[in-house]
From TrEMBL:
One Gene Ontology cellular component: cytoplasm
Tagged with keyword Transferase: yes
Named cofactor requirement(s): pyridoxal 5'-phosphate
Aminotransferase class I/classII large domain span: 25-373
Name of this chain's protein: Aminotransferase class I/II-fold pyridoxal phosphate-dependent enzyme
Family: Belongs to the class-I pyridoxal-phosphate-dependent aminotransferase family.
InterPro entries: Aminotransferase_I/II_large, Kynurenine-oxoglutarate_AT, PyrdxlP-dep_Trfase, PyrdxlP-dep_Trfase_major, PyrdxlP-dep_Trfase_small
Keyword terms of this UniProt record: Aminotransferase, Pyridoxal phosphate, Transferase
GO molecular function, one term: pyridoxal phosphate binding
NCBIfam families membership: PRK09082.1
Length: 376
């Protein structure tokens, strides 16, 4: 059988997690928390499971959740959105991205992707009949705007950005957003897909969102994730915010892809976000980032800036000359700690001897991992 995705195999996340299980290693690879969720969410879930909310939700989402999202966006970004026409609840952010690209990309269209990139982007573009055009970031994970401007052309349908950035933990600054706005002005038919699933996990730097600029928000699909925000990755609930003229096309795909999202989860989230301050999340994860860095102070790893997300990238040049995939495999087998190599997020497999740890773990897990890593 001829495959539609010849370059796609088992994801690095699955591979490293399987190796972690096989070798009984501490798993700092896949990006999921290993600590309990907020007890209030548990209580609300138990309560709602006994209510009459077990049948299909409306296709775009429960009205009470759509209204809750609109109010949250207004509190955080001072942006007014129409909950009935500009929000779509999705089965995780990845499904939202897939539906977006299926709806907006036509055969032969180009989609610009900044590497290292989350690994769902390129396959979704291929399946839509489009052409992914990869632009590598600089070695410090900043964007080469000159190269981007030279790359975007009349065939470019969508530009995908990810801010805060996974896997690097880097955040775009005001100069980046000024450059982004200019690109959108220069190409009036270009649509921005702004993947902001870690929008509330930011530290010292201010998070610049597509919500904050009129030109961007009027031509953007903004991707968000309850799973990342509230440590409930297994619930697979995200949402898209976009102007009505864009979102109505995405809804056409969404209705035949999943139709609607888990109704009990939606009702629980609606109840929860009404009284939750999402702006406190950054402090929670900043403490974990700082704790992990402190525990690793005597290690030979070079820590790179972690400005957002719950990931810490490090370089191991003073430790080994192994390629990053081989180095991660060695760490699992010999040191009992699993990490993610960054070369797999590049189209050209650029290898800067950089790996990624997830610090969304209990203190006990971080202490045990650091003890092993400091012995390298």
């Amino acid at each position: 059988m001829q495959t539609k995705l010849p370059k796609v195999g088992t994801t690095i996340f699955t591979t490293m997690s399987q190796m972690a299980n096989q070798y009984q290693a501490i798993n700092l690879s896949q990006g999921f928390p290993n600590f309990p969720i907020d007890p209030l969410i548990e209580d609300l879930l138990a309560k709602n499971s006994k209510e009459n909310v077990h049948q299909y939700a409306p296709m775009a989402g429960l009205p009470v959740l759509l209204e809750g999202i609109a109010q949250m966006v207004h509190r955080v970004y001072q942006r007014d959105i129409n909950p009935s026409t500009e929000i779509l609840v999705t089965s995780g952010a990845t499904q939202g991205i897939f539906a977006t690209l299926q709806a907006l990309v036509h055969r032969g269209d180009e989609v610009v992707i900044l590497d290292p990139a989350y690994d769902c982007y390129s396959p979704a573009v291929h399946l839509a009949g489009g052409k992914p055009v990869h632009i590598p970031m600089r070695e410090d994970f900043t964007i080469d705007w000159r190269e981007l401007r030279q790359t975007v052309n009349q065939k470019t349908r969508v530009l995908i950005i990810n801010n805060p950035h996974n896997p690097s933990g880097k955040m775009m600054d005001k100069e980046d957003f000024d450059a982004l706005v200019q690109v959108m002005i220069d190409h009036p038919n270009l649509i921005l897909c702004s993947d902001e699933v870690y929008e509330f996990i930011t530290f010292e730097k201010k998070h610049f969102s597509a919500h904050n600029h009129e030109i961007l928000r009027n031509r953007s699909v903004i991707v968000s994730s309850f799973g990342k925000t509230f440590h409930i990755t297994g619930w697979k609930v995200g949402y898209l915010i976009a102007p009505e003229y864009i979102l109505k096309e995405i809804k056409k795909v969404h209705q035949y892809l999943v139709f609607s999202v888990n109704s009990v989860a939606q009702k629980t989230l609606a109840d929860y976000i009404s009284g939750t301050d999402v702006t406190t999340l950054g402090k929670f994860y900043q403490d974990k980032r700082d704790r992990f860095k402190e525990l690793m102070a005597k290690s030979k790893f070079e820590f790179l800036p972690s400005e957002g997300t719950y990931f810490q990238t490090v370089r191991y040049n003073t430790i080994s000359n192994l390629p990053d995939v081989a180095f991660c495999e060695w760490m699992v087998k010999e040191m009992g700690v699993a990490a993610i190599p960054l070369s797999v997020f590049y189209e050209e497999r650029n290898d800067y001897h950089t790996i990624r740890f997830c610090f969304a773990k209990t203190d006990e897990t971080l202490i045990q991992a650091a003890e092993r890593l400091c012995k390298i």
